Amino acid sequence: MNLKLRYKIFILLSSFLICVSLLIGATGADTGKNILEEINQFPGFSGILIKDLNTEEVLFSHNKDKLFTPASLTKIFTLMAALEIFDEEQQAYPTSIYFSSTTPGEINGNLCIVGSGDPTQSPDIIRKIADDLVQKYNIHHISGDIVLDNSKFLPEEFLGRGWMWDDKNPLIGALTVSGDKAKEKQNSYLNNMPFRWGDIFSQELSKKGVKIKGDIRIGKVQEDLKVKYIYYSDTLDKILAYMMKKSDNQSAENIFRTLVPGGNPEGEPTTIADSVAVLEKVIDKTLGLEWGEDYILVDGCGLSEYNLTTPATLIKAMTYLYRKYDFKILDYFSSTKESGTLKGRLPFQVWGKTGTLSSASALAGILETKKKRWVVFCLIENNFIFIEDESDPKIFENRILEYIYENL
Predict the structure, then answer these.
(1) What pLDDT, on the 0 to 100 scale, is given for residue 357?
(2) Quick one: how many helices (H) and strands (E) in the chain?
(3) Quick one: CA torsion of 224, 228, 231, 232, rounded to 10 degrees?
């Protein structure tokens, strides 16, 4: 190949590369311009961070280091902490039953039930526990009380810190009825949850022909009694997937309250402060962030408006989970093509976590664009007034995701 021909090829290649560079630059500028137009039209405070999932290149950012109320995006940190502390496949929550029996079919004294914070116990599961117990021991008479040991958590912390007291919040306790929420003002339902559990349990015993001489009451398990039966919950991975896909506040808060492995060594109830301290250690270890400076989290579900975090912090958490678990982590997130809070919301596949409060909306997740680029994103909106479609934060989020999918 002669020198002149080489020179022509060099000029052509150089021109081609310059054109490609200009086109990429223009596309990036257009991306920023179009998203900024959406931001300027939205009547609220918003924060956005979009990154290439593999290279971590920032594709767009807006208020990425500003603090926002994250709503249910808080559950991403609960998921991360639970995965760091526990085995995904362990049977997470035992419910233990203690009693004494010297005569077959007779319980001499009290039957004590010790809860561990299992968030999966629907009325049907509580009835199953009663049925299994009767079948195993052929019980027909209890001479004492049904004693409900709800002492794993501090009893007065039956609501999360910073929750709106007059909302219909999920009630939190060691003996939890899945799906039950507060229906009255807080002073009157301190013990409602364990008593509701005990009522379902004792009614099922009665249906099976068991005569109960005593009452249902709150108390501690007697030291002289031995455990006779243990019901184990689903494995942790199933509970976490349900928590994330359905954005279930009760599951998330119960998981958050049980982050202290083995509970307090002194046998005292675990408190919200204990759980915050454990979460703080996990986030410091995994993300290198400091509570009170980079973020504030005081519950596990996101109902608290005390919670504050940034889009950058949430992207850091999502990226950490992806780096550690690869695409398996998506099994825990809702998607637009499966059941959950994102089902049918967009015409393309997105895996993510939604967040909704009266003055906060959010969406963080992972998607593959039309150009086969994997991106991780976080969108948070606070302090908006929802009057019509144009101010609907979910429509705002959808438009930005549609633009990401089509153009990045």
Answers:
(1) 94
(2) 9, 14
(3) 80
CA gap 54, 398 in Å, rounded: 23
Q: In the chain, pLDDT over 90 holds for what percent of residues?
A: 71
pLDDT tens track for 39-48: 999 999 999 9
28-32, 106-110, 144-148, 150-154, range with the lowest pLDDT:
28-32
The domain 94-233 having CATH identifier 1.10.10.10: the answer here is no
**pLDDT in the model for residue 102:** 78
Beta pairing, strands 211-212 & 141-142: parallel
Q: What's the token pair of residue 18?
A: 């310059």
Query: What are the residue boundaries of the structural domains of the chain, listed by start?
Result: 37-86+267-407, 94-233
Structure tokens that stand for 115 in this block:
């809860």
214's CB contacts (< 8 A; 6+ apart) are: 110, 142, 143, 144, 145, 146
Alpha-carbon gap, residue 329 to 319, rounded angstroms:
10
Could you give the CA distance from residue 69 to residue 237 in angstroms, rounded to a whole number?
27
- Token couple for 402: 């549609």
Six-digit token string for 64: 């990425």
Rounded to whole angstroms, the Cα distance separating 154 from 157 reads: 6
CATH class of 37-86+267-407: alpha beta
Euclidean distance between CA atoms 254 and 93, whole angstroms: 10
pLDDT value of position 394: 95
Which residue in this structure is represented by tokens 């990429």? 24
Q: Tokens standing for 275? A: 């759980």
